[in-house]
Amino acid sequence: MRSVQLRYNFRVYPTTGQQIQLAKAFGCARVVFNDGLRLRQQAREAGEKYVSDGELSRRIITEAKATAERAWLGEVSAVVLQQALADLNNAYRNFFASVMGKRKGRKFAPPRFRSRKDNRQAIRFTKNSRFKVLDNGRLRLPKIGDVEVRWSRSLPSGPSSVTVIKDAAGRYFASFVVQATDVPLPETGSEVGIDLGLTHFAVLSDGTKVAAPKFLRRAARKLKRLQQDLSRKQRGSQNRKKAVVKVARAHARVADTRRDWQHKLSTKIIRDNQAVYVEDLAVAGLCRTRLAKSVHDAGWAAFTAMLEYKAARYGRTFGRVNRWFPSTRMCSACGRVNEKMGLNVRSWDCPCGSRHDRDHNAAINVLAAGQADNSNDRGAQVRPGLVPAPRGEAVTHPDAARPTCSVEGIPVF
Q1: Which end of the chain is more exposed for a tag (fewer CB within 10 A), N or C?
Q2: Positions marked active-site
Q3: What value, to the nearest 5°, has the Cα angle with vertex 347 and ends 346 and 351?
Q4: pLDDT digit string (tens) for 71-80?
């Protein structure tokens, strides 16, 4: 067993006075973040050295509180202000690590100024702030008060920090970070490969097909009506602000429903299978195509992330198959790789005599590729061997400019 950090989110219901105090804390944290960013930008433009974290804290928080322009920073917890600067420092570290190539993945942009018009506002309290979960279930926050919490389950241990969040729909949440111990599930002999798609959300290698719920499509009519009502409201009016909240609540309901459904499905798959393999899809690229709305509605990235962390927590194996692996075009019976096929082709026949359902065949190939990548180091074959081409296909034509591999079409030099 090992200890891991988990995040638990709960809905909170602050009173009107507490909402005012939270608004002050949101604003102070935003101002401190922007002041720190501005100071470092000015130092860079002036050719001065990089302002250290300690120097930044002294000038932006300690000395600023003594001035008339920033005296109101003392009305909120000092931990909130320190955590705002910690977020700025982490943003700079991620940016520098990305530029220097020390951080894998997509490139990080430099920090940007925060706006009071952002849809999401958040502040963080650590143990130094002495926040406390009271015996009556309320959450005591410094300089804010005892906030009512709607507990859906108990925390596995004492929280090390809590983040208070206000979303675009005007809802408040408390996000606790706690230490928990992994409890592996009983082992099973089942392994599964998953092919994610749009016609079916997921097709498993055992033949199970999970229909795509299409939560956004189902709510499209209501969202359209609310968006039309919003467009008719005068900019800057109170009615427009109310309409903005209504649209945000409708979108939040769609997102919450999708997240709940994905949690239930991912938990079931992890419980039933010892190993789970999925294809590493290029979601960012697909979101720039004509299928963007359907891809966003499916939420593949969030679902695979759930599978990954739940597998690690419950002692399961999780693997991603290379996105260039021809899972759809490869025959799961003989290994032959066929030409590219359109999305309208849902089933196809292989010259070996096998007839394949497009998605089920892909799921079987994903499972085989995942098992090969996860094989042991005791001499076992970790890659499937090349399939001999039929004699008629192996003939080299005289007018061919360059011979190619008859199986995968790879140039031979």
Answers
A1: C
A2: 195, 279, 359
A3: 145
A4: 999 999 999 9
